[in-house]
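Quick one: Transposon Ty3-I Gag-Pol polyprotein from Araneus ventricosus, structure tokens please.
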Amino acid sequence: MFLCPLDAGQTFQRYIHQVLSNLDFCVPYFDDVLIASNNSEEHKQHLKQVFERLSQHGLKLNPLKCVLGKSSVKFLGCLISSEGVKPLPEKVQAISQFPKPQNIAELKRFLAMLNFYRRFLPNAADTQASLHEFLKNSKKNDKLNLFLTDVTWQLSKNAKLTLLMQLL
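--- reply ---
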């Protein structure tokens, strides 16, 4: 019988967080480490500190997987830059071009896409409330046909437009 720790990811996350603690410019997330710097000189110093800290703890990096000195990065479905955090343009485009759902399963898919970016949507719960009404008493893989009114679908279009405005 083979045994493996089921919480290995959590253990590593905790460990890497401890290793890089006190480095305020560092954001460790599992096997990714984001380093935020104001300029290239500061970034070089930050990189040096991180590399030294990792080396002290016997951790090695794969140079082929490292992305260094970028002014913006795609991370966890968002674009992170000096301007802040924005939704990825290609994901917003997919949401904005999503056709009117014809059944419960399609509506769930659409709402899941919207909910991923809910932090960029003011009043997301209120905006989506009328769409969530259709999910009451639905089953997991329900293919029941939907009859969305134009008013209800217009509310979701407003959410799409709000997301698009975030990219500007």
